[in-house]
Write a structure and sequence with these properties.
By secondary structure, the chain is α/β, with parallel strands linked by helices. The protein is built from twelve helices and eight strands. The longest helix has 16 residues. Bound molecules: adenosine-5'-triphosphate (ATP) and magnesium ion (MG). The site of magnesium ion has 5 residues, from helix 1.
Length: 243
């Protein structure tokens, strides 16, 4: 059975979709078969980020309403082993009961399944996720998004699910100037165990134009460290100025 990850955040625009694509690419580059599921109904973006919007005909809502799973799963040309289920184009199309069946089937077919949720908390869908799902809460290293991440973390605690923090768009120079809190403060405020740190990078900014990441770039290195930790490897956090 494949591993399931659910990517969430309190505040919007903190890089959930970017991190989801990056992490999925890291797993795929390690030889895993990976399914990315865009959960942002009405505002889907992963098809554009991955450069396959032209070929999308069916989406998650079609699969839930009876289309063959294979009809709504698209291969990603730029990344071998990576597949995408696009989000429904309209709101309110994800039925919780049918969604649970879809997750079971996805988990049977893929080594890793990553759900990219919209910002905020959606208990009705979170509670559909299998018990061993690991929630990955993404935040920028600033007080506002970290406080929102802590709200998400408390809500996830209440429904008894496991979650970890991914700090995105980390900029060492800003941290050094103390414009942001230090990492210990961030972890304390978020109330979440830190899984990894992704740098602020032009490459990630341009992901929706270039559709892939350089295997040896800093962004990919950071995402690979996170993927390896998720696979159980003990990978230490590098010195902050090297992130
Ligand atoms: N590490 C990063 N470095 C530079 N730019 C980034 C980074 N992460 C994300 N971005 C940029 O930030 C913007 C928002 O990213 P993204 O769409 O992934 O956020 P999101 O959390 O999924 O948003 P939403 O809440 O709307 O779903 C995009 O323009 C993206 O290119
Ligand atoms: Mg998004």
């Amino acid at each position: 059975m494949g591993k399931i990850y659910a990517v969430t955040s309190g505040k919007g625009g903190v890089g959930k979709s970017t991190v989801s694509v990056g992490l999925a690419t890291a797993f795929a580059n390690m030889g895993q078969t990976v399914l990315l599921v865009d959960m942002d109904e009405g505002l889907r973006c992963l098809d554009v980020m991955l450069g396959i919007e032209e070929k999308v005909v069916f989406d998650l809502s079609d699969i839930l309403s009876g289309k063959e799973l294979s009809d709504g799963i698209y291969t990603v040309d730029s990344v071998p082993n990576l597949h995408l289920v696009p989000a429904p184009a309209k709101l309110g199309m994800i039925d919780a009961y049918l969604f649970t069946g879809f997750i079971t089937e996805a988990q049977r077919l893929f080594d890793t399944v990553i759900f990219d949720f919209p910002a905020g908390i959606d208990f009705s869908l979170y509670t559909c996720m299998p018990k061993d799902t690991l929630f990955l809460t993404v935040a920028f290293p600033d007080p506002v998004t970290i406080r929102d991440a802590s709200v998400v973390s408390q809500s996830l605690d209440e429904i008894g699910v496991n979650s970890r923090l991914i700090l995105n768009a980390f900029d060492y120079k800003l941290t050094k100037k103390r414009l942001f809190k230090n990492i210990d403060d961030i972890i304390d405020t978020a109330g979440l165990q830190l899984l990894g740190i992704v740098p602020a990078s032009e490459e990630l900014k341009l992901l929706s134009v270039k559709h892939k990441l350089k295997p040896k770039g800093n962004a990919m290195k950071a995402l690979c460290r996170i993927a390896k930790r998720l696979m159980g490897e003990k990978i230490l956090l590098p010195k902050l100025k090297k992130i």
